[in-house]
Amino acid sequence: xxxxxxxxxxxxxxxxxxxxxxxxxxxxxxxxxxxxxxxxxxxxxxxxxxxxxxxxxxxxxxxxxxxxxxxxxxxxxxxxxxxxxxxxxxxxxxxxxxxxxxxxxxxxxxxxxxxxxxxxxxxxxxxxxxxxxxxxxxxxxxxxxxxxxxxxxxxxxxxxxxxxxxxxxxxxxxxxxxxxxxxxxxxxxxxxxxxxxxxxxxxxxxxxxxxxxxxxxxxxxxxxxxxxxxxxxxxxxxxxxxxxxxxxxxxxxxxxxxxxxxxxxxxx
Length: 268
Hints:
Helix content is 16%, strand content 29%. It is α/β, with parallel strands linked by helices and 268 residues long.
């Protein structure tokens, strides 16, 4: 175990023998750190936080600190970081608010400098949150999604798998899987490059995502009617997933697309 003598490590902490903890790191509380984790100088990890194997916590990152939520009353809550996730300089990830609740980051995620994940966020695997992007509390992000730099995501938003959020976007509604969102919750297309590069989808599945975008987000029909028409012709798992996401419970509604004669829209 390589713990620098100038690091401050709580006696309750459990740190794997292969982990490396740099100078001026503060580990406070019953933190658990897995194998081959590297914690760089000046990082702060606290609470009931678990860091999976092969993670990197870079300088000035804050992981598992108290939630920025007036409802937090000091109970035991959690922060769980999946194996292989990298948390870069100055990023902050807060633990849950309600007793026994958690903030969860999946495996292989990349949280870049000064990004923020609020309390009770849930990120899937291989999610990328770029510089200065901020996710408010209770945001859910699907696998392989990309949240570009300086974008803002409203609390309780759902972002589907393989979604691309453009830089500087303000997302206040749910974004269905495989779509691209920019500006003020505006769906401008689907994510063909991301789907092709993943190697997980057939041409037919990608084509049906394109059809979904055109039928649901480029029409002037009411959203629910357009969705129902698309649902009647779905043939692939990607189409089924889009329909299921859009019909599942939402606190904020689904983002809209650009219609003729308009610049933005929304659906409930």
